[in-house]
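Deliverable D4.2, example record:
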Amino acid sequence: MVLSESDLPGADWVDRQSVSVARRDVRAADAAVIALGDAMPGWVAALMRLRNFIVGFVGLKGAGPGAGANGGQSIGGFPIVSETPEKLVLGFNDWHLDFRIVVEAVPEASGTDLSLTTLVKRKHWFGKLYIFLITPFHVLIVRQSLSGIAEAFS
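Output generated by the structure prediction step:
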């Protein structure tokens, strides 16, 4: 599956990581629940709570577990933008940046290729600073999420 420009028009920051699992029946939503839902490790959930506490002082929206989705469908507090069995897009727009998490599940002969892609459209200097500061944590969290997905579906 290929990312579409329509997933987040104007995105200027992308991180894509993937893992292959032995099962062939994994849907994108199944992988998203493992990566972003209640199965999220405690240290990741704690980082997200800390992030939500800190950014609340500058008017950013909460994200992740416990953030809520303002009445719409969500996984792990991230609102669902679009969904098919092979591709789930989550995310929202904020004043400093817009972001999407794209979870893809591509069936292959030997199992399923699963990818987590983060797309960000930074709106101004604060969005650029924010991404610079959170990137090391983002990379660790995505790696941990992919490990959880691999363990759950292999």
